[in-house]
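User: For a reading group we're discussing how well predicted structures match intuition. Take OLC1v1017973C1. Before you show the prediction, I'll give you the sequence so everyone sees exactly what went in.
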Amino acid sequence: METRPNSGFKVILGSSSIARKKILADMGYEFTTMSADIDEKAIRKEKPEELVVTLAEAKADAILSKFRSNENPEKDEKPTILIAADTAEAIIPRLALDEIKEDAEPRLLITCDQVVVYEGVVREKPSSKDEARQFIEGYSGGHCATVSSVVVTNLKTGMRKRDWDKVEIHFQDIPKQVIDSLIEEGDVLYVAGALIIEHPLILPYVKEVVGTTDSVMGLPIALTEKLIKEVL
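Assistant: Thanks. Here is the predicted 3D structure of OLC1v1017973C1, as structure tokens, for the group to look at:
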């Protein structure tokens, strides 16, 4: 993996999302992961933009609490950027000693969340296969939108910046057998709105994306970089 030039910091990503991990790797960061243990269903907001930002902030607080209580098994590696999203998986590559200063301390905490909006209704992860099927059938020949949030906190100064990004996705008709295959495979059960536009089964039926694909995949690159710069 190619490291980001002159980054000088390590990243912790709080997501098991293959898409988010690929995006972060493509951005040039080496990273570990940390979980955000919150009850997402207990946090409700009327507007999707408010919901995703509030959830991302709740994840930031939860991960920060865990990090500071030394529950992080990799605490001795002294990460300096912490990124979290909606789920977690322990994937812990090491940085070479010359890639991070010995006295480095945590500096940034980045958290994310995403929902899908369909006909004005917020969709989070489907609760069952039947709900996932209902979601995907609704997209067939229609459109939906993703609303993705990023929250960045400077752990030294306490400065916190937050924002969200919205992308519209338009679909051609999705054949029933394709939907059946997606449900049987099961990956769509673990993502907001049962929506994975980069999936090889669904990609041929994506007519248009109004916005960036990385945002749809859960980690808007431009927004993430912008907020990092604002709190440094």
